[in-house]
Write a structure and sequence with these properties.
Shape: elongated
Oligomer: single chain
Distance between the termini: 21 Å
Strand content: under 5%
Number of strands: 2
Number of helices: 10
Strand order of the largest sheet: 1-2
Mean pLDDT: 84
Number of domains: 1
Order of helices and strands: HHHHHHHHHHEE
């Protein structure tokens, strides 16, 4: 679980509620009709803009904002250097057992195509198509939350206008003007809070998660093609390090590595 996402939402709500308690009562900020307008209205607008299956799919993607389940590039480097070493020593067919034990379909399918003898250009084209499809699906999820973040304040304003119209239609009661104005503004408050604390930050987090996942899969694609080309494992490690962050590169460069010798060939693998 990515506790920063949860902590950020909880902390933000806590600070807002603390400010409310410091200056008055929480009950004056509660309005069920306002919530219905902001949440129900903005969600209804999403159904107008997107297909229902797309909106439903987004809720499955949303879990990525609360998860850190992205492969570590150091693990990718170590695993593929080991596979490269084995392929050079025993041949590509020796990877069959390793492929059957892999959980990631992208890695498994890529290596299986290599073992099956597909042309490198065809392997690259298929894997790039999978990446494009993944990126498009992630972009859709981000777009839904960005749209929701734009629609929520708009429906908050609509709710405020409804409240103002109702208030102005009853100006004979002077004592009701103040409370009526407060209730009218609550809807705008709900829209701004949900957009800037939940929807837009969620879209940003999904964008970051998507970038991380695609970067790792691009490294996997290069590793698969390198194994097919029979590149030296040491060279493969250096190529994959290009996908690592400065902190991860420093991990390899500061000597946290071990040397493994097989058949007279020394292979350096990150000690993850």
């Amino acid at each position: 679980m990515d506790f920063l996402t949860i902590m950020g939402i909880v902390l933000g709500l806590g600070l807002v509620m603390g400010a409310i308690f410091n200056g008055g009562s929480l009950t004056i900020f509660w309005s069920l009709p306002s919530l219905m307008i902001v949440i129900g209205g903005s969600f209804s607008a999403l159904l107008v803009k997107f297909q229902f299956d797309q909106v439903r799919m987004v809720f499955n993607i949303t879990k990525n904002a609360f998860s850190t389940d992205v492969a570590d590039i150091r693990d990718v480097i170590e695993n593929f250097v080991r596979l490269s070493q084995k392929a050079r020593r025993e041949g590509l067919l020796s990877l069959e057992q390793d492929i059957s034990e892999m959980d990631d379909p992208f890695v498994r399918n890529g290596l299986q195509m290599v073992v099956d003898g597909l042309e490198p250009e065809m392997v690259r084209r298929i894997m790039e198509t999978e990446l494009d499809t993944l990126s498009a699906r992630h972009n859709l999820g981000q777009e839904v939350f960005k749209s929701w973040g734009a629609l929520a304040p708009a429906f908050g304003m609509i709710g405020t206008l409804i409240g103002l119209i109702q208030m102005l239609s009853n100006l004979n009661d002077v004592n009701a003007i103040g409370p009526g104005m407060a209730v009218a503004l609550i809807t705008t408050f709900y829209g701004a809070l949900l957009a800037n604390l939940v929807f837009l930050p969620m879209a940003g987090k999904l964008e970051i998660r998507s970038g991380e996942e695609i970067a790792v899969k691009e490294a996997v694609m290069e590793a698969v093609l390198a194994i097919q080309a029979g590149i030296n494992p040491r060279v493969l490690q250096e190529r994959l390090k290009a996908f690592a962050s400065p902190r991860e590169k420093k991990y390899f460069e500061e000597g946290y590595s071990s040397s493994r010798k097989t058949d007279g060939e020394e292979v350096v693998i990150g000690n993850v």
